[in-house]
Amino acid sequence: MDFEKLSAERYSLRKFSDRPVEQEKLDLILEAGRNAPTAHNLQPQRIFVIRTPETLEKADGCTGSHFHPPVILVVAYDPETSWKRETDGKDHGEIDAAIAATQMMLQAADLGLGTTYVGMFEPEKLLAAFPEMAGLRPIAMLPLGYPAEGAHPSRLHADRKPVEELVRYL
C-alpha cells in the first residue's frame, strides 16, 4: 500500500477477531518501533508484548477501554536514558515513545492488522501489575490484531479539519 493511502485509510480498530497474530508479523511491527527516530538516537522507548490470557487479563484491569485483542503492546520510555532539552529540561522520552507507537501502528495497518492508541489507562496500576516495567513511564497501550467481521472506522474517522486551518506558511 502506498503511504498516502495507508495514512488516510488506517483507523482505530475497536473490534478484534480471535485470529492470532503471526510471530513474523509481530516481529515486523516491533522492528518498526525499534527503528523509530529518537532524540539524539538515545532510543528510550520500551515495548512490552502482552499476549497470554493471564497477562491480557491483568492489562485489561488497568484500562477503561476493553477491546479484547489477541495482543496488547505497551509502549513506555526510560526517563533515565531519554534526552532532555538543555534550554528548559523538556523530556523527549514521551515524544520518542509516541513516534515508535505511530510507526508500529502504521506497520500493523500495512500488514492487514489493526490497532488503536489507548491513552486511557492507569499508569500506576499498570506498573503494579507488571513489575518488569519498574522505572519506566508507560504512555500507551496498543491493542493489536485482525479486524473482526463488521469492524469499521468510527463515524468521525473521515471528519478532518481543512488543511488551511491546520497549516500556516510563515
What's a concise summary of this model?
The chain has six helices and four strands; from the N terminus they run H-H-E-H-E-H-E-H-E-H. The protein is an alpha+beta fold.
Describe the structure.
- The protein is α+β, with helices and mostly antiparallel strands and 170 residues long.
- It has helices at 3-9, 23-34, 53-60, 93-110, 123-129, 163-166, and strands at residues 45-50, 71-77, 114-115, 137-145.
- It has a four-stranded antiparallel sheet, sandwiched between helices.
- Helix 2 packs antiparallel against helix 4 (93-110).
- It is globular.
- The two termini are 33 Å apart.
**Structure annotation, total helices:** 6
What is the domain total for the residues?
A: 1
In CATH, the architecture is: 3-Layer(aba) Sandwich
Number of strands: 4
Portion in strands = 5-15%
Kindly list the characteristics that best describe this protein.
NADH Oxidase; 4-stranded antiparallel beta sheet; alpha+beta; 6 helices; 14% strand; globular; 170 residues; single chain
Topology:
Blueprint lengths: L2 H7 L13 H12 L10 E6 L2 H8 L10 E7 L15 H18 L3 E2 L7 H7 L7 E9 L17 H4 L4
Antiparallel strand pairs: 1-2, 2-4, 3-4
